[in-house]
Amino acid sequence: MTKPSAGERLAQAAFDLFDERGFEQTTVDDITERAGLGRATFFRHYRSKDDVIFPDHDRMLDQIRERLQTASRYTARAAVSDALRLVLLHYVGEGDLARRRYALTSTVPALRDREIAVVARYQRLFREFIAGWMDATAEPALLRAELTAAAVVAAHNHVLRRWLRAQSADPVAELDAAMRLMTGLFADPEALPEGHATADVCDESGPAAAVCAARLRHYGALRRFSGYVATVRCFEDNTLVRATLGEAGAGRVLVVDGGGSLGTALIGDNIADLAVASGWSGVIINGAVRDVAQLRAADLGILALGSSPRRSGKTGAGAAGEPVTFGGVTFSPGDLVYADEDGVVVLP
Fold it and tell me: Rounded to an integer, what distance in angstroms lies between the CA atom of residue 287 and that of residue 265?
């Protein structure tokens, strides 16, 4: 068994004393005596007893900054997700210590105030990064960057609090789901990088870019399109496809896993017109379309395996908003997808 470091011994002693005597009644001398260490050792590790309580936020902020600096214009969302996951995993790795800290800061106003000030540092770092990614130099883009950064931090803190309260068995999965929700709320087609040819995305993103191997064909007027992913899974039944494309698209791309069936069409000219009117950028279908001649004029990106003149069922079977997989790629809500005549590329 690994022997605890001096810093860990001091932290354990401090939290034990805070539980027994209270934060205000505990002194540095009390902590060093309980840990069996000297004052000089204490101050080599901490500047005050307050510092014993909190993680090394300066180090974590540096790690976040380093991760964000590695992002390309195509992988900004993935970089933000990775940065949030880094912080969450630090707390989860602390285990009971993190929960004891949470209980303490919830009852000592001065500690709570310090924690709020630290949260503002994280939000500022994310705001600066997001503003740079969006090329935000004036309103309303600056406001969008501020709101997005606030949502990013709120998503992380919501999941973290649930874990601290023993309400979450898988906080990492919850954080990923929260990020997908946040991306959907703040998706902005104008914030997507221009000139997003799939070849450029692959060159800049490397292994992060997943290429769909399904043999999809273009049917719409737009041969190059991109956006945040929304999903539907269905089989020879387009009720959920129509319902989803009737919602505000905000430049998103609907990815439909139709099970690879060419037996019935999942969209035709009427649903394509609905998608255009609702502001969708495109539709990618692991299945069939119909009204091919009319689809060629639709101001929409449409990719599908093939066509069928037969209409689909209308029972409403299927699911929306869940990850779907075909062509060797998993498409999750909130991912970024790029499509052109070279193929389809998805970035988490």
Answer: 7
Q: How far apart are CA 231 and CA 284, in angstroms?
A: 10
The fold for domain 54-186 equals Tetracycline Repressor; domain 2 (1.10.357)
Q: Residue 83 is encoded by which pair of tokens?
A: 């940065």
- The C-alpha angle 156, 336, 283, rounded to 5 degrees, equals 130
Alpha helices in the chain (DSSP H): 6-21, 28-35, 39-45, 49-53, 57-69, 76-94, 96-105, 109-133, 141-164, 171-186, 198-205, 239-245, 269-278, 292-295
**Which of residues 152 and 194 earns the better pLDDT score?**
152
Residue 319: what are its φ and ψ, rounded to 5°?
A: -150, 150
Question: CA-based Rg of the chain, rounded to a whole angstrom?
Answer: 25
Give 1's pLDDT tier (boundaries 50, 70, 90).
low
Spans of all domains in the chain: 54-186, 198-347
Residue type, 207: P
Same fold, 54-186 and 198-347: no
CATH 3.50.30.40 describes domain 198-347? yes
Q: What is the pLDDT of residue 189?
A: 45
